[in-house]
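Feature request disguised as a bug report, sorry. It would help if multi-protein outputs had a clear separator. Right now it looks like this:
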Amino acid sequence: MITKVLGVLCLISALPALAGTDKVIATGGATSIEGAAGGGIVPWAVIKGYASSDQWSVNSFASTVQVDDFTLHNLGLGLSFDDRWEWSFARQKLQLDSIGGELRQDVWGLKYRLAGELLYSSMPQLSLGLQYKKQRDFALPAAVGAAEDSGIDYYLAASKLFFHSVAGRNLLLNATVRNTEAHQIGLLGFGGDGVKRQWLLEASAVLLLNYQWALGTEFREKPNQLAFADEQHWRDVFAAYFVNKHLSLVLGFVDLGDIAGLQQQDGWYFSVEGTW
């Protein structure tokens, strides 16, 4: 799937730049696995694409996470306006490679920039977001203790770019707090006996080597409320290549800890994104 999508999106790189596109390359971030602009596993306060005042931007992405016993495929679309509003949709398919079967989930996202700017203000860019998640294969989540096949995550993100801060390179820092009752980001359902909504911390640090290349790392705190198996925090390191304002690629290493009783799920992550 990724190979086919990559072939199509590579054609996008030959398109002329969008008229009136004023934002600096890479300032829209990449696309996280749930469809919001950010890194690989964490949404940031940035808004998708390169639309600035009174402009629209359209985005599409595909990504794959391959770890020892699972493969997660993600496809999605995004829309942004005025560098203030972001709408996103992601379809996730988790293949249970070791035990067989799959789990599917749809994620509808909305993000609004509240205040600040990534580059040009002393105040960090602050954005408020929500993600409505719908689990489409609920038999397994219900069997392990989840009560609902849908839920809503709320998050507040703060992002700021610091110029010439590490060996003369620019550094982007992001912190996100998320309120959720999802198990394994919703792929194992929502709620259940004794399950409460929790506030969780997520963070990213990205070193911009130049206008096209970036190196980053992320951390995502996870709840641990299903009795049948521990849910552990997620981490990644990645390299991003922003070919131009139409095409970007991300390759990374992920550490997802134990998932559904299967231990030490490490592997790789790849994402390709096209923007119009």
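(second protein starts here, but nothing in the output says so)
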Amino acid sequence: MEIVLRNNLILITTGFDTLNTPWMKDFLNHHARGMLFLPKAVLVFRNDTLTEVREEFLHELSQHHAKTHDFDHRFFLRSMLKYGTQPIRIELEKLEDPQTVKVNLYAYDKNTVLISIDQPNLWVLNYFRSQLEVYVERGTDISLVVDVGDYKAKARLERALNKRHILHYQIQYSYDNRFMSKLYSDFASYSFGDLCKKQKDDENIRLYTLLECPVGASQDALKKSYKKLAKVYHPDKIVHESPNMVEHYTQKFQLLQEAYTALRIVS
């Protein structure tokens, strides 16, 4: 394990054994909604309501690090506590062999989706919690029930499902042939004539959904959401990933640009 104290973060480079210790899991579970998943790493942001949890984690981390390197941890702990407000980046010190995790998707109806895995996996479920945030109604160590009753929630779900790699885990999604028809059953009752008349309105809804904004959102809201999503899906961020992933991000980035340009004119 290596710990580097930088001006803007605490960088922890370690192996998977440390990532799966009880004190590390407890810390990450508390911060599930404040985590950003990066290639081969996670970034944990400060949460003012979890100050005690963070300090306890730094104590455990300091003791573990000192034991590994055979030195007194108290001086090092004081140094780390000075960085108590900075983000903590935790990354793997070496690339592990990919491990496939099957994620099952089931739509109860157009408003509710069940996300489940066969075996408990802290990292995969915490990824979904961090992406879907307030839309999670309830969950266990192997499942989450998500409210997708509006277009913004459905867009967040689509965005979350676009990611296929978390640390060394490779996600494999599975769902039955009624999943999409249930999820988007709002459109099932439309006749061809209805769709023709409402084609323009539906296109606008699609554009707002791409930008994760409510229909009729202000120019400021559109601009803010566009900038945030453009940073997430910019192809330059994943230039070293697989060609398929780079192509997907490139297409998504282009769609965001087109949606923002079109809605700026409409609104």
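Even a blank line would do. Unrelated, but nice: The radius of gyration is 21 Å.
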